[in-house]
Amino acid sequence: MAFSRVARSGLRRTGGTFGKQKGIRVTPQYQSATAERIVEESESEFDEPRYPGLEATKPGEKPRVVVLGTGWAACRFMKGLDTRIYDIVCVSPRNHMVFTPLLASTCVGTLEFRSVVEPVNRIQSALATSPNSYFYMASCFSVDTDKHEVYCETISNGGLPHEPYQFKVAYDKLVIAAGSEPLTFGIKGVQEHAFFLREVNHAQEIRKKLLLNLMLSENPGISEEEKKRLLHCVVIGGGPTGVEFSGELSDFIMRDVRDRYTHVKDYVKVTLIEANEILSSFDVSLRQYATNHLTKSGVGLMRGVVKEVHPKNIVLNDGTNVPYGLLVWSTGVGPSQFVKSLDLPKAPGGRIGIDEWLRVPSVEDVFALGDCAGFLENSGRPVLPALAQVAERQGKYLLELFNRIGKHDGGKAFSAKDSVLGDPFVYKHLGSMASVGRYKALVDLRQSKDAKGLSHAGFVSWLIWRSAYLTRVISWRNRVLRGGELGNHPGFWQRQFQDRIGWDGIRWFTQNMSQQWRC
Ligand SMILES: Cc1cc2nc3c(=O)[nH]c(=O)nc-3n(C[C@H](O)[C@H](O)[C@H](O)COP(=O)(O)OP(=O)(O)OC[C@H]3O[C@@H](n4cnc5c(N)ncnc54)[C@H](O)[C@@H]3O)c2cc1C
Questions:
Q1: 216 with 319, same domain?
Q2: Domain that residue 147 falls in
Q3: In this structure, are 86 and 134 located in the same domain?
Q4: How far is the CA of 73 from the centre of ligand 1 (A)?
Q5: How many angstroms separate the CA atoms of 324 and 206, rounded?
Q6: pLDDT bracket for residue 286 (50, 70, 90)
Q7: Which of 298, 303, 327 is CA-nearest to residue 238?
Q8: Which of 196, 236, 387 for mutating ligand 1's site (highest number of atoms within 8 Å of CB)?
Q9: Alpha-carbon dihedral sign for residues 142, 146, 147, 148
Q10: Which of 75, 145, 199, 318 has the smallest C-beta neighbourhood within 10 Å, fewest atoms?
């Protein structure tokens, strides 16, 4: 096999039409900087590029399920997939699952980074031990639904003979669970200057920046104004993630900064900027509770719409200038460039369109779930919120569907037509939770924004918030780690008594929630 030619790939040049000219459904490459690099040598400029990789499975071999992603949806799916029936090939740029609801806590050291990740091999051991199952650390950039192949590019680290290194994997069934990307609304300067909070390395960068700013501000000769700027942490977006991060930051300031950075402690400030109301999807009493609690904890709440972001300040639509030392952006998520580039039906909002069985109609053997997927308009169902709760339950639903059709020989490509799929996926919202810092959280058990139902705020809710997540995809190792870290902080147990917990209440809530969250 020769890789001698640096092909000016037709795929790249024509933005996907190359595939169509050849009668192939190929999605365009979107990673423009790398797209025209290495493909196998082909006969002429108009030949399809040929990639090394895994060819289609042969008769007698187990069907191969290719899974894109290692997030909530993909991991829940892989965890329960029957590996006596299927081989699994998982492709993802990261080799672990991130326990996103607890990510904010790692930025300020409440939790260790290792406690919020779970290696994918531990979630599905067949990936490491089964002869025909693999994990490939790569990003998928294209899918050929006719040939049943995905095209991937490895993460570059300078260790491969050709970089970027591209390969293909043929599938019998394809499960796309590639998540979403933060929305920036095209606002100038956001990508360059703001931090996002989606991955562990983001949390690490935020922590590093925060500590660096604290240390820099102690240097001699730093003006009052500059100190204030360096130690002004601004969070944009008052959804659950923005609120949780602001709460964690204010906790950190109260808990650690006051003791460890006494010279500059009075300069540290957290401001949460939101265009409308914070936590707009929560019950009105919970919103009020959160507002009061955050204000009492020293978080400044500001109404405003960001117009542009500069390296040291942001400008709001009304002209207000807000200097900052740390800027965290959390204004929701939307379809990723990869999802946008796929030549597949789309749901309202641009996610991959799916039917009630999470299939992508009009192509065979392709399923999509989690943040990257949404019900097609003609299904009459709403696009579900981008939540771990949704992703995880879709993962569980799909693995049961796969195990069922696999038992009836429907696992191979083009073989599931006559399989009984069973009941369609039905989503029942179990409620929303958000922590607001200082061992307080909100639990809203209403099924929708306008429905009536139970809501609760305070320490008991915080316990529920933490414990509900302990039972999810993660291993016992991490449950123990997180459980241990839960009560690690000075004043934790003392505060419990100060708060006069109703233990019956805790028992009731915990039982209730663990039943509801069990899947
Ligand atoms: C800080 C934070 C806090 C949150 N808190 C909550 C909460 O409290 N409750 C709740 O319900 N939800 C919460 N969410 C939302 C929740 O995390 C998401 O809804 C959930 O992660 C979606 O799962 P997913 O599997 O669809 O996508 P993700 O978990 O985002 O996983 C996507 C996967 O796809 C991979 N990938 C991306 N592109 C490609 C590609 N081209 N090829 C292959 N792989 C690819 C990614 O590396 C990743 O492994 C939170 C999110 C964040 C960021």
A1: yes
A2: 64-180+336-407
A3: yes
A4: 8
A5: 13
A6: confident
A7: 303
A8: 387
A9: positive
A10: 318
Q: Establish whether residue 242 lines the binding site of ligand 1, counting it when its CB lies within 6 angstroms of any ligand atom.
A: no
Question: Which ligand 1 atom sits nearest the alpha carbon of residue 373?
Answer: 26
- Whether 137 is in a domain gets the answer yes
Picking from 102, 73, 82, the residue whose alpha carbon sits closest to that of residue 479 is: 102
389 touches ligand 1 (CB under 6 Å)? yes
- pLDDT top residue among 283 and 346: 346
CATH of the domain at 192: 3.50.50.100
The pLDDT of residue 179 is 97
Whole-angstrom Cα distance, residue 316 to residue 270?
17
Cα-based distances in Å from 108 to 66, 104, 252, 289, 324: 37, 8, 6, 23, 18
Distance from the CA of 357 to the center of ligand 1, in angstroms?
Answer: 21
Beta-sheet pairing, 149-154 with 134-144? antiparallel
Residues 495 and 371 in one domain: no
Query: Do 213 and 311 reside in the same domain of the chain?
Result: yes
Of 279, 303, 332, the residue that ends a domain is 332
Whether residue 347 is contained in a domain is answered as yes
Confidence of residue 483 (pLDDT cuts 50, 70, 90): low
Is 304 a residue whose pLDDT tops 90? yes
pTM over 0.70, yes/no: yes
How is residue 247 written in tokens? 């709460």
For residue 457, how far is its CA from the centre of ligand 1 (angstroms)?
A: 26
Residue 70 CB–ligand 1 contact under 6 Å: yes
Ligand 1 atom closest to 370 (CA): 26
Residue 462 CA from chain centroid, whole number: 22
pLDDT at residue 482 is higher than 80? no
Proportion of the chain above pLDDT 70, given as a percent: 77
Instruction: Indicate whether 154 and 195 sit together in one domain.
Output: no
- State the pLDDT at residue 434: 79
Tell whether 202 and 323 lie within a shared domain: yes
Residue type, 78: M
Q: What is the pLDDT of residue 33?
A: 37
Q: Are residues 437 and 307 in the same domain?
A: no
Residue of 389 and 314 predicted with greater confidence: 314
Instruction: Indicate which atom in ligand 1 lies nearest the CA of residue 94.
Output: 47
- Is the shortest distance between the CB of 71 and ligand 1 below 6 Å? yes
Last residue of one domain, picked from the residues 407, 441, 459: 407
In a domain, 27, yes or no: no
Closest approach atom of ligand 1 to CA 98: 29
Q: What tens digit of pLDDT does each residue of 58-82 get? A: 999 999 999 999 999 999 999 999 9
The answer to whether residue 47 sits within a structural domain is no
**Domain check: are 212 and 309 in the same one?**
yes
Query: What local confidence, expressed as pLDDT, does residue 459 receive?
Result: 73
Residue 140, ligand 1, Cβ within 6 A: yes
